[in-house]
Write a structure and sequence with these properties.
By secondary structure, the chain is an alpha/beta fold. The longest helix is centred in the N-terminal third of the chain and has 18 residues.
């Protein structure tokens, strides 16, 4: 009798575990660079234009007309994000995001590190950092997410399947869609 009860309880727990969707890896609401019109308007002050243009295009391809649109601006009064280069050889990081409330958020790209990376790694880093500006946190899924803590440890150069699901859950149907971003 105990075995049957144990089997039933174990089966019920496993069924719930398997049936539950993966949790979105988003930061605290409001930790993003998105304005009230669901846009990220960025000032481009980086030499990594090609990587940035491709990263923006990849994230924009997920918006399905109702998510976040990322676009370049030359107007600092409208910008919500500034992307620029630094040369800091004493630090370990290649890219870093700072979210300021209120104020303009920043993505810093460390030339001292980035200049030695192949094109694919630079693409991963810029795409990863833009993911943070969309409110996405690190996760432990290198095979399916650009938001793995070490972008160079994944083969992805664009948002992966898990990132697409997180984007959909947060920006298309989730709390951001209803104003909770």
């Amino acid at each position: 009798m105990k075995r049957i009860l144990f089997s039933l309880v174990f089966s019920a727990i496993m069924l719930l575990y398997v049936a539950l969707p993966a949790q979105a890896h988003t930061a605290t609401p409001g930790r993003n660079s998105v304005n009230a019109d669901h846009q990220i308007l960025y000032l481009n002050e980086t030499r990594y234009d090609t990587a940035l243009a491709k990263a923006v295009s990849r994230w924009n391809s997920l918006n399905a007309g109702s998510g976040v649109h990322i676009a370049r601006t030359t107007d600092p009064d409208k910008a919500t994000l500034k992307i620029y280069d630094v040369n800091n050889c004493s630090d370990w990081w290649a890219g870093k995001v700072s979210i300021y409330r209120p104020g303009m958020d920043t993505v810093q790209l460390n030339v001292c590190k980035m200049k030695n990376f192949p094109r694919g790694d630079r693409m991963r880093i810029v795409t990863h950092e833009l993911g943070h500006t969309l409110n996405f946190d690190h996760n432990d899924l290198p095979a399916t997410s650009i938001m793995y803590p070490s972008p160079a440890s994944t083969s992805l150069t664009h948002p992966g399947p898990h990132d697409e699901q997180d984007y959909n859950d947060y920006w298309i149907v989730g709390p951001a869609k209803t104003g909770g971003y």
